[in-house]
Design a protein that fits this description.
The protein is an all-alpha fold. The protein has 13 helices and no strands. The termini are far apart.
Length: 292
Amino acid sequence: MADPDEHERPVAENTRRIEASVVTDFSDRMSYGGYLDLDTLLAAQRPISRPEHHDELLFIIQHQTTELWLKLVLHELETARDLMRADELAPALKCIARVKHIQKTLTEQWSVLATLTPTEYAQFRGVLGNASGFQSYQYRAVEFVLGNKNAKMMQIFESDAAATAILRHALESPSVYDEFLRLLARAGYPIPAEVLDRDVTLAWTFRPELVPVFASIYRNPDEHWSAYETCEELVDLEDNFQLWRFRHLKTVERIIGMKTGTGGSSGAPFLKRALELTFFPELYAVRTEIPG
């Protein structure tokens, strides 16, 4: 029987009592470690430098946690896209709101890697061989789902059938933006047919004919609140993505300067060019059209 006073007693000798109701026998019960498969997860960090360099564990965990967050980002964006296809905008925006919080976490995470000095990284960089974040298929899938598609990227993953299947699906499916524009068309907004029928395997490029459509939404937000809110949520997504890209660039510059990347890219110059890529250019262009 639980002690009736156990919740009222102060902590003694800096030791907290274990309440009698706390489960301690997991011989036939689901445990925290079992549910999360922690044995597998915590065994996945395998530094290969010899002797093992102290900072290699940081490097591995930084990238593994990024991949876990990207898995959730992809899950949420694909769901948001599917919900838009079903004209369920409110739950779609809930998914996007979650992605925005994940993006902030991913951006802040660069500050942890930035504690790695150039000298420290140089001492184990050689063991990476040609391994590079450039080869993250989940990152490419996120870009594809947001509309920044590049079929040539597929060749990097030809030796990985599972990754190729995921990217092929993302490449050939409408993006979040495509589905938003189709939703607007179904709601009566004058989205041109050539936009709705475009080849979705190609990267989205600026469509000036959409700017007047968005201008009408921004000039009368009270009349078009759902569309207006979605536009701003998409701008948040792109803004956050660009902040992540910028923080990535500055972290790379801080650690390796202007060295080439392990995957063969030019390194910082290649990352800098990514800042010129865009997802929703019309939603930025419309700002010039707002009077005032």
